[in-house]
Amino acid sequence: MEPIIQVRDLTRDYRLTHKREGVAGGLVDLIRPRRRVLRAVDNVSFSIDPGEMVGYIGANGAGKSTTIKMLTGILTPTAGTVRVGGLVPWSDRLQYTRHIGAVFGQRTQLWWDLAVVESFRLLKKIYEVSDDVYARQMGVFNDLLGIDEFLHQPVRKLSLGQRMRCDLAAALLHQPRILFLDEPTIGLDVVAKENVRVFLREIRDLQGVTVILTTHDLGDIEQLCRRVIIIDKGKVHFDGDLEDLRVRVGRRVRLSLELREGISSDRLVGLTAGLPVSWEANEGKLHLAEFRREEVSGADVIKAVVNAFPVSDLHLAEPAIEEIVRDIYRASGKGQA
């Protein structure tokens, strides 16, 4: 399958000026300014196939937003190449924008004082969407997002969750092949987040849209993306399946135990002395252990405990994706990634 997005050695530099303090410093700056180059994106390369939903994540300042701006044609790179559907985003901009949609979490593309439906009609004219396609897309959006109930309200009167649903519909009105999402669930409550996630899964399955998602809410990644690209300090430190990401830092598992009688965790430490298990220091009925699947099985740890103590409840859980990403950052900071 031919990739729909091909990025090779993408680089973006910013020239920064360091200002001196005071009036005298300002005068010196006029004659002898101090400048340095900040490399926001550093030789980034990846390919994305049609229909993939990829999480592109990193800390603030990691370079992810700069990458997205180059992929959408807003910025021109310092070096490197990008081809999306055979087009170069910054040089084929007019043709290119007909094939992409974008949603930036806190920036609406709808007209603030107009009714939602009027914004949709304007976008229909801008993108030269036919009446048949418009009617079909609006039907899909109503089925999946339930937007009919507030189509005739001004955008400024919508809740954040309602506005996000409308922004997603607006971005997909012209049936783009690629959708760029930058923090689409920021500020949303639990119900609104789930509505957005369900819609994205269904629209991908229904229309085959390729999605690149940047987010700080890693719940979005876990529920939507099989593939993750992690960027830090402008460089890609991981590109692969989410499950491979877990394996890369070790399949750490947490075992939560509730015993019928309170005991010291020292007794549990002694009980599992021959196993590579770490117990949190605690007194009472509730205890927490951590271990790696490649070193010991959960069944062995549980068997050792239940054979020695009456257990009321237990739960095995892998660490949240946030912790795994932090481990990747720690490794990259030590030059191990």
Short description:
The chain is an alpha/beta fold and about 325 residues long. Helices cover about 35% and strands about 30% of the residues.
Description:
The chain is an alpha/beta fold and 337 residues long. It has two domains: 5-246, Rossmann fold; 252-317, Alpha-Beta Plaits. Helices cover 36% and strands 30% of the residues. It is built from twelve helices and 13 strands. It has a six-stranded mixed β-sheet with strand order 5-6-7-3-8-9, with helices on both faces. The protein has a four-stranded antiparallel β-sheet with strand order 11-12-10-13. It has a three-stranded antiparallel β-sheet with strand order 2-1-4. Strand 8 and strand 9 (235-241) form a beta hairpin. The protein is globular and about 70 Å long.
How does the helix and strand content classify structurally? alpha/beta
What's the multimeric state?
single chain
Mean pLDDT across the residues is: 87
Which CATH top level class of the largest domain fits? Alpha Beta
Total number of beta strands: 13
Report the end-to-end length measured between terminal Cα atoms: 29 Å
Largest sheet: 6 strands, mixed
Portion of residues in helices? 25-40%
